[in-house]
Amino acid sequence: MRTGLLRGPLLLLLYQAVPLGAARDSVGRYRMTFGFGAGQWENEQFDCAGDLVSAARVPYRSGGVQLDAWPGPRLRITTFDGTFRPTANTPTYETPDYYGPFYGFQVAFEGQHVGLGLGLTHVSGYDGLNGPSIYLRGGNIDGAHFRADLFPPTTVLGSTGWLRAGVGFGDGHVRATSGFVGIALPPAYNQKAMLTGSIRVSIAQHLAVQMDGIVGPGEQYSQRGAALALRYDFGAPSR
Question: pTM here?
């Protein structure tokens, strides 16, 4: 039998059996991330004339978990929970005291070209705070876009800053390399702008590794941080 005669019916059967989206693998609607990081901030004190009075290293460790749930293709619900443990080398009564658990949530509309999210964040400690978690995006969620965040959901507190703005790419439903690069402000030990970035790469069908980094100057000591996370996605993709 000449197999060429079967190609047409076989191709038609394959077209009907395989979903249209199969050419671009989609991420599951539930995405669980576990992360750990460490680094160093600089606590700075100035007098009324603006002269530096003191500068102290604030090494820290942090880790936690984050869950992103997509009930629909345009709705994202994120919760996160972790711990932040700084150890100031020369603490004073003026050194901000952030220590212990942090957690929060965010609900976001994720259109293909516009994103908007709002939630709450809690950071423990004597100077702990409750603040809004705000997310703004303009541009293709599966391609290049501009985004800005205040207290972004995270597994490592401050791994990309408490406030950040920059360019991101590939953070939607398509399974692909994604990332972000921009300018950030660190926790309130000082107000110096820092460079931050992150990248996430798939290493298996449902598993991806993410790396965050932040670096910037200080008055006497450089500031830096790094975080490593694993994300596992599961559940039928949002349609």
Answer: 0.84
